[in-house]
Amino acid sequence: MSHVFESKKPVESDFLVAFCDLTGFTRMSLTRTNMEIYDFLSSYYEKVGDAVESAGGKVVKFMGDGAMAVFTDDKAEKGILALLKLKEDWDAAMAKARIPCALIVKVHFGRAVSGFIGTRNEKRFDLFGATVNTAALTRAAGFAITPQAFRKLGAPARKLFKKHTPPMTYIPVAEKHNP
């Protein structure tokens, strides 16, 4: 894991920032017990963590069915590909289980500040800046990366995506264009 993720002092650097969210989670959770929701989210968190960590990234936080992850510049392509595989695997598993709960992934690359922040007694790693906001606000119906993130991909990986507008994002070749 990168020393940036462990630095006790704030670090400004280039990062790949990703947000994940589950469509249909609220509706699905209305038909489940609290323990079933806990078990479902526990499995989801582990799958997100496994994908992110195996690509050299860090899960910054979870909030309900939402997740924020970060990768350093040198792990950007690996991170994008790991997140794409996570989406494919998650969606296939949900379809097989007949659970209407697809994974939405939004990814942006740019400058941000990372560091440990929080209460006087409990500080946690987090990330701040316009890059984080852009990633969070990127429109996606499935999986979308901004042009800045797309530029972090090598030629073979770029072939997995196509332009999607407006605003400009790239989506997997197999994904349908949505307005």
How would you characterize the overall build of this protein?
The termini are far apart. With about 180 residues, the protein is of the alpha+beta class. The longest helix is centred in the N-terminal third of the chain and has 21 residues, at about 35-55. The chain contains six helices and eight strands, in the order βααββαββαβααββ. The strands form two sheets. Strands 1, 2, 3, 4, 5 and 6 form a six-stranded mixed sheet that branches. A two-stranded antiparallel sheet has the order 7-8. The chain has helices at about 25-30, 35-55, 75-95, 130-135, 145-150, 155-160, and strands at about 10-20, 60-65, 65-70, 105-120, 125-130, 145, 160-165, 170. The model has no long low-confidence stretch (mean pLDDT about 95).
Question: Secondary-structure blueprint of this entry?
Answer:
Elements: E1 11-22, H1 25-29, H2 34-54, E2 58-63, E3 66-72, H3 76-96, E4 103-118, E5 123-128, H4 130-137, E6 143-145, H5 147-150, H6 155-158, E7 161-164, E8 169-172
Parallel strand pairs: 4-6
Antiparallel strand pairs: 1-3, 1-4, 2-3, 4-5, 7-8
Count of extended strands: 8
How far is it from the N-terminal to the C-terminal residue, by CA? 38 Å
Secondary structure category: alpha+beta
Strand content is 25-35%
**Count of helical segments?**
6
Radius of gyration: 16 Å
Report low-confidence residues grouped into runs of 5 or more: none
The biggest beta sheet reads:
6 strands, mixed
